[in-house]
Write a structure and sequence with these properties.
- This protein is an alpha+beta fold.
- The chain has 3 domains: 57 residues, no CATH class; 52 residues, no CATH class; 74 residues.
- The chain contains 7 helices and 7 strands, in the order H-H-H-E-E-E-E-E-E-E-H-H-H-H.
- A 4-stranded antiparallel sheet has the order 5-4-6-7, with no helix packed on it. A 3-stranded antiparallel sheet has the order 1-2-3.
Length: 220
Amino acid sequence: MKQFSKLEKDYFDAYVYDTIWSLAYLYQSHLLSNQSIIGIFKNVLENIDFIGDTGRIRYLNGGRIGEVLVEQFVACRMMKDKTCRIPCYEEEDDCHLTVVKIFLAKYLESKDDSPILYKLNPIMWHGNGPPRDRTNQTIQFEHIYLSVFISISICSGIGLFISCTFLAFNIHFRSHRYIRMSSPTLNNIILGCCVLAYINMILTLWPPPPFINVMDFISV
């Protein structure tokens, strides 16, 4: 016993102690009764009522009933009346980590009634409220101004005209010695791709939509 008394005590030791006493009470009732084990277990479990290390011991539908206390670990500044009302960060001065009692659910004498909920203190959060449990997604529409559309269309039209002019010039003078030395076929392919690119630029922006996808705008 002396060796066990030197062991460090845990918070749940009292619950284990009360559970053993409940089993002892159940076993004693079984010895004093001639009923079946299942019937004795149900009857005795519903009638158990004693004061243990963790408070009043009572059972309902196979589960223990009693007081349920909800607490919150919060870093706050202590007031003059020893209450914690202003949350803070532990790195700040006069900021201490303490436990604040939030809710208390308590049964009355009758086990059939619902427990009564007592609000002891408000829940405290750093900032304007509880931390977010997900990322907020904001949909923002981006539109092209008419002036930008006109400017891009004019530049694309000029580029289209110049590309068509060079392409016609290259085809018309394809038999010329200097033209043949400059790889006319490759030049025609490049100019044709430029024509298609400028046409695609104009057709993509016409008619000018009120809203456009950001990736489409980047690709343009």
